[in-house]
């Protein structure tokens, strides 16, 4: 079992000795002021980024994109095209940076790996009975091991929300620890599916639980439920990673996913990152966007800034 220690050297692993100890810790976290969180998120969402700073922010947002396709109709051709786009998002402009990662189902990992091999673009795979998380642990481990063996260097796992909401925190913790071990050297992103957690307090508790169990990132959503990433939820998660680093000395990333479609949306998130967690998280190693259509809008806005001409949505490939 993975232990979490503070920067001062104190051991937090005893928290996971039972559901009762985990519950006492998680329910002892400060409650989230719902009105305050939503008002602050709304206020941060009104901030604007201008001229040269906007150009920098757009390039940063492109570098933070996990370019994603998670559809039952995914084909090898679609995944190869998406992977090529990840490497060179704008073929007409070599100065455009590549994205952070491509995210696909485990069966498509070998296809993406054949295109991304030797590049700096990461290969992420959803696993652990995505999107429901309702499968025996042995199946989740096999799912993870297969994706890593095929070439994934990042795993996006889903927690069992039913177990979490029933208060079976130790069960959720142990599953995350087991999947983390199965990841070997791959980074683990833990999907909370915040749209099903009902309250901001649960979002904070789930964030801490995932981090205590060894998650490298906490991620909002699968994109498969009606409510995906929101700015207030992401703000709560950013506060959690900030406080977790202050407590333990370990930095954890955040990935909002689902529903982030425009450059304006992305700018709101970047402002919120800077104002909540700080500049250390303004890096693809610590903040990602899980998205499919966002990249095209970023590219259109980038073209407008660099050429003065606004390209239509059909100028770039559809994802």
UniProtKB/TrEMBL annotation:
EC main group: lyase
Signal peptide: none
Enzyme Commission identifier(s): 4.1.2.4
Enzymatic reactions: 2-deoxy-D-ribose 5-phosphate = D-glyceraldehyde 3-phosphate + acetaldehyde
Similarity field: Belongs to the DeoC/FbaB aldolase family. DeoC type 2 subfamily.
Alphabetical list of NCBIfam families matching this protein: deoC
Protein name: Deoxyribose-phosphate aldolase
